[in-house]
Structures are given as C-alpha cells and as structure tokens.
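User: I need a structural model of Sterol desaturase family protein from Pedobacter punctiformis for a docking pre-check later this week. Nothing fancy, just the predicted structure tokens so I can convert them on my end. Input:
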Amino acid sequence: MNIGQTLYDELIGFFGVGGIIKIVQTGNYGYLTTLEGIQTLMGPIIPLLLLLEIVRAFFYKRFKIDEYKIPFLVFVLNRFISRFISIAAVAFCIGLLERWAIFTTTFTWYWLIYGYIVWELSHFVYHFLGHKVRILWCLHSTHHAPQQMNLSVNFAHFFLEAPYADVVRTSICILLGVHPALLFFIMFIDGFWGSFIHIGENVIKDGRLGFLNRILLTPSHHRVHHAKNPLYMDTNFCNLLNIWDRIFKTYQDERRDIKIEYGITREMNPNSLWDVYFGEFICLGRDIAAAPGLKTKLLYIVMPPGWSHTGDHKTARIARESFITSENSIKKDEIPEFVNHI
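Assistant: Understood. Predicted structure tokens for Sterol desaturase family protein:
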C-alpha cells in the first residue's frame, strides 16, 4: 500500500476537490453549467470554511486543540470502520418501498417544494426519535458531546447513526411519493445546509443571519439545539425549514439573556474518545442491569433519556417545563402588587 497516495486520496476526499481537479485536468469547464457540476463546485465550501474557522481562531488566539481533537478522532474512526462496513441504506429503501408510494412526483420546481417539506418531516421524525428513544440517543449523543460549536462537529457522529437516519428519512420520503432523483437533490441541499449551520462564532458571531432567522433554521437555531440549557433542550429538530418545529411546538429562538452551554447533561469527559463514542451505551447498560424485571429493562431501551423506573425522571421535557414554570413564576412575582389588584 502506498501510504503517501492513501493520505493524498483521503485529503482530496475530505476537502471534496477531486471533481474540481478532474475538471481542470480534462479542461471540461462546461461541466460546471450542469447540476452535477454545481454540486461539485459546492463540495469544498464546508471543508474550506472549517479551515478558515481554524485559521481565524489561530489569528485571534482563540484556537484550542481540544475543541477539534475529539471530532477529528471520531471522523478518523468512522472512516476506518466504513472501509469494512458498507450499508447502502438509501438504495435499499428505494428498491423496497418505491412500489408502495402513494403517488409519484417528478423533478420539477413545484414538486421540489413538496419534496422538501416531506424531507423536513422525515428529518424531524428521525431527529426527534434520536432525542426521545434512549437507544437511538446512544447513537446521536456522540454528535452532541462536543462542548463547543464549530464545523468540526459535523464529523462527530456514531458510525451507525447515518444508516439509521437514512432508513427513516428515505422510507418516509419514498412512501410519500418523492421521486428518487428529486430526493438525492434534496439530500445534497440538506447536507450542505446541515453542515453550514454548525459554523462557529469564530466565523459568524451572530448566527441569526438577519431576516433569514424568521424563515429558516439558522446557525443560531442549531446552536440552541446543541445546548444543554434547560430552555433549549430538545428543540429545533428541523434542518432548513422550521415548519415542523413550529407545528409540533419544538421551535425555540436563541435568547440574548441566556448564554448557550454546549454538550450533554450527564457527567462525562469531553476529551475522551471512549466516553464520547460509547459513554451513553455504558450508562444504558448499567441502567438495564440494575432494572428489575424484563419489562423495565426493555423500557430503559425505548423510553426517553432520563426516564427512571423509580419515577424520579430527569428527562429533557421535565427540565424544560420546570425552567419555564420557574421563570414565569419569577416574572409574576416581579409584577407590583397594586398591578395584581387592578
């Protein structure tokens, strides 16, 4: 094995410039006018923004290697595992479920609008379950473990989360009639935006993005989603359009009076690859082992994180409702007494 060539291929693959290099070598610049060419051109944007983020952090003396170390190690681990495990989840779901679609759409602008709304629903379902089902949280928690927000967080995922997400999202979209070609195009847009909203404050201080904050899910919204503050927990599950978060009442704006605290609520070592990658599985295993009876053991697998068979629940919903109730009570107490008698 040529180690130098392998490292070169990995570097080219990470930065997504392989397609651009090929275009330059062949001189086929007309390819850039096609949909595939535009996708090729957009491929390097997120990795280059990550590089810019790191350079700016160095320049302003804010760079901390611990903020990037674990996401990088997770990325390397996942790349190693993926060489031996290849799960064609999207293709499998399309082949299995396309015949059962309620109707069939086409690759047109009006079906793109429908398809994206359906995609956001499917993303909401996958993401919501990832926070509300304990075993699925074990897969998703690796992404929430970093105690800062920057583009490297994009690469902090448990290796089985992507296949699970693809099965859920693809199945819903195909059954609701989203054409496979349209689905792949939506996935490309969603992948780009989903990466972009992890951008750190070193590049974009105020992630609200002006008027876009009212119509799209911005980096500000996603910073809220990654927060462990009680008010922010389990909110903003969508990726680009916030329609389903508003419908299901999980939408939450970033408040200027609440500083975001990133990470997960259990005590953990954010600099330990083992704890970040397997910590939630270990905690779940301990709870199952200590639980009385088979039914209770199974409940720990499917109930939300923080659920307890003793009734001493510490779920995100309870923490958020408690915070809101407490805040409303404080506000009520601050109203002058003579106002209460009006």
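Before docking, keep this in mind: The two ends are 83 Å apart (CA to CA).
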